[in-house]
Amino acid sequence: MKNLVIGSEGFIGKPFCNFLESKGETVTRFDIKREPEKEDARFIPIDFSDIDRVYFLAWDVGGAKYLYKEDAQLTQLDWNLQLLHNVMKQLQESKKPFLFISTQLAEEYDTVYGATKRLGEIWTRLLGGTFVRQWNVYGPLEEHSIKSHVMSDFVYQALTTGEIKMLTDGQEVRQFIHIDDVCEAWYLALSRNLKGVHDITSFEWIKIIDIANKIAAVTGAKVIPGEKVGSTPLTPISGKIHGWSPKVDIDEGIKRMVEEAKNILHK
């Protein structure tokens, strides 16, 4: 099987490419981070001629502090609409099976991220493709930035400063899913050419303060809650992949993430 991964260098894209190769499949990587002038999926023609399956991961995305940042909304809108227009038109012409990675926030319309992902879902349906709604992924350590996600931020702080300084009081809740389970679910979804809405998540709500405390228990860090009250988007579960369920629970996933992060930071 020959796979094209558009957005191969992201914090989910890299492990997913490794996952496909571990199955003995061929992966063609495509990402603006590799060659900006040749692999910018907003503008560049893509060669699908020797490809069996396409995974459309590329997006201007980040954690909540970026997705809800007011002065980043127009940038996200412009970037992601260009991605959709360029990639979807080419997928239509190629007629290749593809998976579009959406989000549970496609049910919400108060951010550009959710609205553009919803548009991507509609476009995917019209082309006969497959999409999944991805919830909060954790596992790989990200470079600490405005776009990094909460789990990575907590682990990074814990290992580099001995403290976890939270932006909120941590009473808001989220659902998290480990990268290993994500890879299995994506592969299964496209292999089965699933139609309809399918959520990729743990199906379990957990407070952010509890996440911080679990990381602190593994690292010995001190948790310092913030004063801001966080928001909880209680998005409903719309669909599950038959026969798939997460295998990595939150405690095991955090232990793995901390150990892998230690190896990266100590190099």
Structure description:
It is built from eight helices and twelve strands. The protein has a six-stranded parallel β-sheet, with helices on both faces. It has a two-stranded parallel ribbon with strand order 6-9. With 267 residues, the chain is an alpha/beta fold. The chain has one domain (2-265): NAD(P)-binding Rossmann-like Domain (Rossmann fold, 3-Layer(aba) Sandwich). Helix 7 (208-219) crosses helix 8. The chain is globular, with a radius of gyration of 18 Å.
Features:
single chain, 267 residues, alpha/beta, Rossmann fold, 6-stranded parallel β-sheet, 39% helix, 16% strand
Cα Rg: 18 Å
* Largest sheet descriptor: 6 strands, parallel
**CATH superfamily annotation:** NAD(P)-binding Rossmann-like Domain
Give the H and E element order: EHEEHHEHEEHEEEHEEHEH
- Which sequence of strands runs across the widest sheet? 2-1-3-4-5-10
- Alpha-beta classification: alpha/beta
CATH class: Alpha Beta
CATH architecture identity: 3-Layer(aba) Sandwich
Total strands: the figure is: 12
Number of domains: 1
Helix content: 25-40%
Query: How much strand?
Result: 15-25%
Distance between the termini: 35 Å
Summarize model confidence as the mean pLDDT.
94
- What name is given to the CATH topology? Rossmann fold
Number of helices: 8
| CA-based shape | globular
